[in-house]
Amino acid sequence: MKVTILMAISASLLLGSSLSGQKVFQKKCSQCHIEYLSKSETLQRFTTLKAPPMVEVASRLKANIQIANGDPLVKRGVVIAFIKHYIDNPNIDYSMCHPGAIDRFGIMPSLKGKLSAQEKEAVAAWIYDRFEGVDF
Hints:
Layout: H1 2-17, H2 21-29, H3 39-45, H4 54-64, H5 72-88, H6 99-105, H7 117-130
Helix pairs in contact: 1-7, 2-7, 5-7
């Protein structure tokens, strides 16, 4: 089972490697999400933001998605899979946003059909890796 998961993660990394996740973010996501704001800056600008800063989104996903054995590669793969699914199928039932953010911004609109599978893979991996070790 673990070998299958690692092979799937490796394959997904190879697919996403030819495309820059940061460029996908800038082209598709930055229209609503600011890449980085500190918590205090976010609170100061809360009423003017269109969506939570991506650093907060990444931080909440990593904190809320737990892997039983703590394997960091498996966790990375699960978070990336969640992001890819959420891009097309955002839903309040499995949103991990802070309740105040949901009250302020609502649920993200679906981007189904607006990003290719490779773009979703690239941006999801970039979101995970970009904010590795970065606190909100």
